[in-house]
Amino acid sequence: MVLAEAAGLPVPAAIALIAAGAAAASHLLSFPVVLGTAIIGMMLGDVLLFVLGRYTGWALLSFICSLSLNPETCILRSAESFYKRGRLTLLFAKFIPGVNTMAPPLAGSMKMKLTQFLQLDLAGASIYILAYTGVGYVFRDLVAQITRGVQSASHLFAEVVIAALVVYLVYRLVQYRRYRLLGVVPRVEVAELALRLASKEQKDIILADVRSHGYYDAGAARIAGSIRLEPNQLEEELKLLPKDKDIYLYCT
User: Fold this and answer.
1) How confident is the prediction along the chain (252 residues), in pLDDT tens digits per residue?
2) Which listed residue, of 13, 134, 218, 225, carries a Cα 20 to 30 Å from 194's Cα?
3) The domain containing residue 132 runs over which residues?
4) What is the Cα–Cα distance from 109 to 106, expressed in whole angstroms?
């Protein structure tokens, strides 16, 4: 389950880790084996996404985020974590829904060294796994009570879970459709914009580079005549833009 979650599947690895910690406290499982297995599973999934991110770039990130309610927010939120905290994001990314899956491929797409990724990801995975197995280990009696309660009311519990899943899936589909209808980003063809830039209309156009941090630095090449807008400081940047011009953006 840890491997599946690390590979991007919607699997509740935290619950599995809590249960494993409780089982280890009850001497049903070996605690070192639980930790070792979970860490290996998480590292395998993370390395897989790291390598895919390295060789597919933002194509993989776009695919992962396309499954979320708001793809733009999904990508920006993950990129923002790296922008603010750099590579140390890997130490706590597992605890943040959305960022946990995005962090390894994002690190790969940003060309982070594999050795550095492995060190930070191992530390982050160990913290995450120790935290949840530790909770299960310490509160084994509570976990056992919950388990017995679920078993004694298994039929009712199953019906409640199925009903909750159906309601959740319907909700997600409605929200997904709403964002798809209202959240479409208008786009322009490159050739069309090039013609506008070459014409007399050029004075009425602002072309802005809003590539995410990690793909842009002071010496990076950008389209001639464009300005740089920092995507993580848009509130301040927007105050400086004129209101009487057409603004075109290009991102990563």
Assistant:
1) 899 888 877 778 888 898 888 888 888 889 899 999 999 999 999 999 899 888 887 677 777 776 655 555 666 666 666 666 677 788 888 887 767 778 888 888 877 888 988 999 999 999 999 999 988 888 877 777 667 666 666 666 667 768 877 887 787 677 667 666 655 677 888 898 888 888 877 788 899 988 865 555 666 778 888 888 887 777 888 888 888 888 998 887
2) 218
3) 2-152
4) 5
Q: Name the one residue in this structure whose structure tokens are 């985020």.
A: 65
Same domain, 13 and 45: yes
- Helix or strand (DSSP H, E) at 250: strand 246-250
Provide the domain count of the chain.
3
Q: Give the SS3 label for residue 139.
A: coil
Query: What does the DSSP 8-state code read for residue 228?
Result: E
DSSP output for 181-203: HH-PPP---HHHHHHHHHSGGGG
**118 CB burial (10 A radius; 0-12, 13-18, 19+):** middle
Domain final residue pick, 137, 162, 185:
185
DSSP letters, 15-84, are: HHHHHHHHHHHTTSS-HHHHHHHHHHHHHHHHHHHHHHHHHHTHHHHHHHHHTSS-HHHHHHHHHHHHHH
Give the Cα separation of 193 and 207 in Å (integer).
9
